[in-house]
Each structure stands twice: as C-alpha cells, then as structure tokens.
Amino acid sequence: MAYFTKIMPLLLEGTKMTLALWTMTMVLSLPLGFLVSLAVRSRFRPLQWLMEVYIYIMRGTPLMLQLMFVYYGLPFVPLIGPFLRFSRLMAAVFAFTLNYAAYFAEILRGGFLAVPKGQYEACQVLSLNRFQTMTRVIIPQMIRVALPGITNETITLVKDTSLAYVIALAELMHGAKATVSRDSNPMAYIYAGLIYLVIVFVVTMIFKKMESRYRLQEK
Amino acid sequence: MAVIEATNLKKSFTQQEVLKDISFKVEQGEVIAVIGSSGSGKSTLLRCLIDLEKVDGGSIHMDGSPLVEDGVYCSKKQARQVTEKMGMVFQQFNLFPNLNVRDNLMLAPRLVKKEPDQVLQERATRLLQKVGLSHKDTAYPSLLSGGEQQRVAIARALMMEPELLLFDEPTSSLDPELTGEVLQVIRQLAQERMTMIVVTHEMGFAREAASRVIFMDQGRIEEEGPPEQIFNTPRQERTKLFLNSVLK
C-alpha cells in the first residue's frame, strides 16, 4: 500500500496525458470521420477516390508507423518540413485523429447504407431539401446503426493511446514502464492496467446510455 | 385545365423499355385506378409523375406548368414548385422511424410551408382523427401495425395539402385483414373529391371507388374508361385476359 501511494502520483500524471490524447482525438476525429463519410458518398468522383485512398492507407498501415512518421518523419519533408515539427502530444493527436477518422468514416458509411432508399424518397416527395433530409431524417437513423461500432472504436482508442509510448509521450504506459524499470517492481503494470479498466468502464457506460437513448426514441 | 397531363412519356431502364408512349390527363376530382400485371410500368409511371424517376421523352404538366417538356426537364426550383403540389403514399409506407406519429406529420410542413405552428398542429389533429389514429399521436412507427402505418403515411401526405395524391400500391405490403382500413380512408378521400391516382391490385376497390380505370400492359395504356366498362365489357383482348386471371 505504501508503494501504491508512492507511485500513484506519477501514474496519474500519465493518466492525465492519456485522457488528454483520448479526448482531443475523439473531439477531432468524429467530425472529421463524418465529413470523410460524406465525401466517400460524394458524386464527385475524384473526391471519392481520394477519400478511398486515404482510408486505405490509414487502415492498411500500422498506427505505430503512422505515429512515428508524423513525429520523426514529417520534419524531413523538403521545404515544409521545418513547419511540421510538432510537440509529442500534438504529433500523437494528429496521427490518431487521421487514423481514427478513417475508421469512423467507414463505420458511419455503414450506418448510411443501412438507411433505406425509401426514406430519401419520402423526404423528396415531401419537398424537403437535401440539408433538411440529412439532418432531420437520415443522420438520426444512421447514428443509431453506427453507434455500437463507434463505441467499440472508442474503447479501442483508450488502449491505443499507449502506442504514443513510441514517441516518448509521457502517457500512462510510459509512466508505468518508467516506474517498473526504476523500482524493479512490476506492480506499476497492474495499477496501469486497472486504470485503463476504469477508463474503459466509464466510457462504456456513457456510450451504453447513448445507445439506449437512441433505441428508446424509436419505441 | 387538367390537374396533371402526361404526353408521350417514354422511359427505359438499360435494355428494357418500361414506358412506351404514355399519354393521359387527370381532371380535378377524378380518382384514377391504374391496374395491370407486375412489370407493366404502373409504378414507374407514378414515380415519373412526381420526379422520383426521370423520363427519357415526353412531357408532364401540372396545372399547365411543365415539369418536363419533350424530354427536357425544367429548373430544379420549378420542378420543386410543381412536385410540391403532389403527395405520394408508398407501398412500404416510408414513415420516419426516428419520429413519432405527430412529428412524422409535422416535419415537412414545418420546414417547407410558411404557416403558423398553431395551424399545422390543428391540421395534424384533424387529419389523425380522419384516419382514426388520434390515440396514436405520440407512438413511434415501429409500434404500429402496417395498416396504421399506412394511414399515418396518408395523413402525412395530406398535411402538405396536395392538389393531387399518388398511391403506389398502398395495400400491397399489408396483411389481407389490414387492407380494408386503408382502402376505407382512400374511399373517404374519393368522396371528398380529392384528385388521386391509385396504382392497385385491389380490383374491388378499383371498381367501386375509381371514376376511371387505366389498364396498363407492357409499358402501354392498353385501355381506359369508366370502371363498369373496363370490368364488364373490356374491349381489348389483353384486358380480358388480365381480368380473367385476377378476378377468378
């Protein structure tokens, strides 16, 4: 117990960083993913292809590689390289956001596909314009379908933040590793694991609530 | 002036010609039943009238203003003005599952019509009463029977006060015991002189509620006339064959 109270401040410092990374990534990647899901459905072909390539790269290469590329690689880009020197946190937020936006876009696209064509037709014969159709009818139905997938990704992101270890961001995993090396005591790993579980528990509860609210709405 | 007039409509899907030179007129207060076997082009015709499908040739005029003239479509804005005067009821109801019954009725007029909310609320109340669903005001569509959903869909279409109401096989996805309640509502609208075009497989309904029957076969209007004439003394061989097969 004495050891627990001794190392907790350090782990909580790391937890703060983990939560900061998680929050910023969520706040940025969900709207971006939404825009990408719209772009993938766009009738303007070049935009559609560009987005498909983007999604392919983000899903087809390891997140760890993307992270290292953003932090260590981008500064070497000719001409603009010097302007692409991010702090560790910003590099992580940037890489995670790009990566997660691609996954969210795919989940949301699936949600869009689940809305029957008849819904669009009903809107058209009732003279709703495209914006009204999307905001009042299509998106509320799409979200209901996409929400479980989003919950899943959100939980994965909590754990994926630990990848930022490779660019030496002082997040929870980083703190735990440092503590274990310093004290030759593996307990920090267990405490870190418990902290991840607590975070995931809270996130799961929040999203469960949202899911049930969307379900209730239709009953 | 005719409420809606279609002249020489043509429409193909890839290889198949679905509408071959269709012309007809509908006058104020008429109830047209469009009958014919599956694949005869009835639904496509209806969908072209309200701009859910584009024709390849021909003209559609509503109250004299064109939606399409000789295969050339008017501007989006005008198309909207024309189709705003029409309502449509679908085979699959297509109610909005994320909204309750009253909000299904209120959504479009609130966004599209420039009328006070009070007026719209009263209209919704009146129309729900008319289709016998006042008690389902706050229910969500998933909790309603097919017949109830279709009656809500009719009320939703009427909220926009259309001059012409199109029905695309309104009872075809209903259990037999539920078709009666929907047809009853359409009959009542017919008595109130609502102008309607009803694509239907319900021959009994076509015979008693329609003022005119159009029989379609292979993308053509094969025969049209008052129901007594079409059902009792059909002139065309194809009409006879069709009626024999469905009226056994």
Biggest contact: A-B, 20 and 26 residues
Q: Please compute the radius of gyration of chain B using only Cα atoms.
A: 18 Å
Global structural class of chain A: mainly alpha
**Mean pLDDT score of chain A, rounded?**
93
N-to-C order of helices and strands of chain B: EEEHEEEHEHHHEHEHEEHH
Rg of chain A is: 21 Å
- Kindly state the mean pLDDT of chain B as a whole number? 94
Outline the structure in words.
The model of chain A has no long low-confidence stretch (mean pLDDT 93). Chain A has eight helices and no strands. With 219 residues, chain A is mainly α. In chain A, 80% of the residues lie in helices and 0% in strands. By secondary structure, chain B is an alpha/beta fold. In chain B, strands 7-8-9-3-10-11 form a six-stranded mixed β-sheet, with helices on both faces. Chain B has a five-stranded antiparallel β-sheet with strand order 2-1-4-5-6. The longest helix of chain B is centred in the C-terminal third of the chain and has 16 residues, at 176-191. Chain A binds chain B through residues 116, 118-119, 121-128, 132, 136-137, 140-141, 144, 217-219, and chain B through 50-52, 80, 83-84, 86-88, 90, 92, 94-98, 107-108, 111-112, 140, 142-143, 156-157, 160.
Summarize the model shown.
The complex is a heterodimer of chains A (219) and B (248). By secondary structure, chain A is mostly helical.
Which short descriptors sum up this protein?
heterodimer; A: 219 residues; mainly alpha; MetI-like fold; 8 helices; B: 248 residues; alpha/beta; six-stranded mixed sheet; five-stranded antiparallel sheet; 9 helices
Secondary-structure map:
The complex is a heterodimer of chains A (about 220) and B (about 250).
Chain A: H1 2-40, H2 45-60, H3 63-73, H4 88-113, H5 117-125, H6 130-160, H7 172-183, H8 187-217
Helix pairs in contact in A: 1-4, 1-7, 1-8, 2-4, 3-4, 4-6, 5-6, 6-8, 7-8
Chain B: E1 4-13, E2 16-26, E3 31-35, H1 42-49, E4 57-62, E5 65-69, E6 72-73, H2 76-83, E7 86-89, H3 101-112, H4 117-130, H5 146-159, E8 164-168, H6 176-191, E9 195-199, H7 203-209, E10 212-217, E11 220-225, H8 227-232, H9 237-246
Parallel strand pairs in B: 3-9, 3-10, 7-8, 8-9
Antiparallel strand pairs in B: 1-2, 1-4, 4-5, 5-6, 10-11
Helix pairs in contact in B: 3-4, 3-5, 4-5, 5-6
